[in-house]
């Protein structure tokens, strides 16, 4: 039986490799055509359009309703014979957070914090986009345009500490900073149509041209979905993007012939495809590791990529459900499987108010369902065909410098030897100990310093 399974696996792998090789050759041959398509189809920006200033209001009625719902929470019994966080968010710890949320958390003061930087809303391609626009040290001679992109379940204000750090520690540079909210996230709502990462890329480039100037160069830092959107920007607009700095190279870009060969080699000779530092950090890249990621670690991805509205219905009406579901992602994304057995899932490392600000933001904007739809949209819109179907396989031109900063507990991992085959100008590769997926939330100083070091190398 095992022998038969092995033979079948080899046959499937061979077919997959041939198919991946064919798709890669097809993608390479269409590279120039895609860039030309991007030029011809970029969203036109009406310079007469004025962005509307936006301020977040403290809605006392909604806040009182949330507290009422929290007071009526129906908890359930935890298991005594399994480790905490092994089945998901620990019910006893959730009760503790719910009680704090309803009785001690000060949302009004957090709203004031969220309004720390100037915010705007604008309609681009019939899509409402909310964004922060702030210029640090405006009198500095050196000026750099940057776009900061987060993902799910993050938020625009996750970059506030980084902005503050850059302003105080790089006084000789004027950073013109734009932090947009992905369509369907937070105040980039209401969204009543399908918008996928590809659409978002076109919209964000239009926003950058609107703010920075039509032919201005800009640099991009991306995390989570922001990493994917960053790579799309680099592939579509290599003449305009000064460089991209990402924390999670998107795995969907590495289902090509060479990458699968590395994963196959990593199955039997794991250290042969890794650098010494990657081995030291415990990283793995193999077929079984990819399967483990899909089967054991990313169940939420499957749900959100198929039926996001079903699970969204529960979280849109249950703050307890929203807290447990979202903060479990912060636990796993920050610490991996190392938190199993810890009642708090490692989350007490963070400021409790910071975590609850994220949850309250998703609750008050009622965007949990619309934000999760991005996963479904990413697969649904592949049916639209070219150029979406080949963009993932396209290499990033040598014209665009790429910086990769990976934290030790990042959800997915692609080794340096594989990355350099896809990112033809991989000018920086940095592994960081003691951090995870929500890198800017955990380590704003490390992210900022590395991003600025990367920009200086690219200039």
Q: Would you kindly provide a brief summary of this structure?
A:
The protein is an alpha/beta fold and 459 residues long. 49% of the residues lie in helices and 14% in strands.
Structure description:
The protein is α/β, with parallel strands linked by helices. Helix content is 49%, strand content 14%. The chain contains 20 helices and nine strands. Strands 1-2-3-5-4-6-7-8-9 form a nine-stranded mixed β-sheet, with helices on both faces. Helix 4 (91-103) crosses helix 14.
Which descriptors would you attach to this protein?
49% helix; nine-stranded mixed beta sheet; 459 residues; alpha/beta
SSE blueprint and pairings:
Blueprint: H1 2-29, H2 31-41, E1 52-54, H3 60-71, H4 91-103, H5 107-114, E2 119-124, E3 127-135, E4 142-149, H6 160-169, E5 173-180, H7 197-212, E6 218-222, H8 225-236, E7 241-246, H9 257-268, H10 276-280, H11 287-297, H12 299-304, H13 308-317, H14 319-335, H15 352-364, H16 368-380, H17 388-391, E8 402-409, H18 416-422, E9 426-436, H19 439-442, H20 444-458
Parallel strand pairs: 4-5, 4-6, 6-7, 7-8, 8-9
Antiparallel strand pairs: 1-2, 2-3, 3-5
Helix pairs in contact: 1-9, 3-4, 4-14, 6-20, 7-8, 9-11, 13-14, 13-16, 14-15
């Amino acid at each position: 039986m095992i022998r038969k399974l092995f033979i079948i696996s080899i046959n499937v792998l061979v077919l997959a490799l041939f198919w991946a090789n064919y798709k890669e050759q097809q993608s390479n041959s269409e590279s120039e055509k895609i860039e030309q398509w991007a030029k011809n189809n970029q969203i036109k920006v009406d310079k007469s359009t004025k962005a509307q200033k936006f301020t977040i209001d403290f809605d006392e009625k909604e806040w009182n309703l949330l507290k009422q719902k929290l007071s009526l929470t129906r908890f359930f019994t935890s298991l005594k014979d399994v480790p905490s966080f092994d089945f998901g968010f620990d019910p006893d710890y959730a009760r503790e957070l719910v009680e704090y949320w309803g009785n001690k958390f000060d949302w009004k003061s957090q709203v004031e914090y969220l309004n720390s930087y100037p915010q705007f809303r604008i309609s681009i391609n019939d899509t409402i986009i909310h964004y922060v626009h702030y210029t640090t040290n405006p009198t500095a001679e050196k000026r750099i345009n940057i776009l900061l992109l987060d993902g799910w379940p993050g938020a625009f204000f996750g970059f506030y500490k980084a902005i503050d750090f850059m302003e105080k520690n790089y006084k000789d540079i004027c950073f013109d900073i734009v932090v947009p909210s992905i369509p369907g996230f937070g105040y980039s709502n209401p969204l009543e149509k399908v918008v996928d990462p590809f659409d978002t890329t076109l919209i964000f480039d239009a926003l950058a041209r609107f703010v920075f100037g039509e032919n201005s160069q800009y640099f991009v830092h991306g995390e989570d979905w922001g990493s994917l959107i960053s790579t799309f920007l680099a592939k579509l607009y290599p003449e305009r993007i000064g460089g991209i700095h990402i924390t999670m190279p998107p795995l969907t870009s590495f289902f090509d012939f060479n990458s699968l060969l590395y994963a196959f080699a990593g199955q039997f000779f794991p250290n042969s495809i890794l650098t010494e530092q990657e081995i030291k950090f415990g990283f793995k890249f193999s077929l079984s590791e990819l399967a483990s990621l899909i089967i054991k670690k990313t169940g939420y991805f499957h749900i959100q990529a198929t039926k996001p509205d079903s699970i969204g219905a529960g979280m849109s009406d249950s703050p307890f459900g929203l807290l447990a579901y979202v903060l479990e992602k912060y636990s796993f994304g920050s610490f991996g499987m190392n938190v199993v057995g810890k009642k708090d899932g490692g989350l007490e490392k963070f400021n409790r108010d910071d975590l609850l600000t994220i949850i309250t933001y998703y609750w008050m904007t009622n965007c949990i369902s619309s934000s999760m739809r991005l996963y479904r949209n990413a697969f649904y819109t592949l049916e639209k065909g070219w150029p979406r179907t080949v963009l993932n396989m396209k290499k990033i031109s040598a014209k665009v410098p790429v910086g990769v900063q990976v934290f030790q507990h990042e959800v997915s991992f692609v080794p340096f030897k594989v990355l350099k085959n896809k990112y033809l100008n991989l000018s920086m590769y940095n592994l960081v100990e003691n951090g995870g997926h929500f890198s800017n939330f955990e380590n704003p100083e490390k992210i900022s310093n590395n991003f600025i070091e990367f920009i200086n190398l690219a200039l």
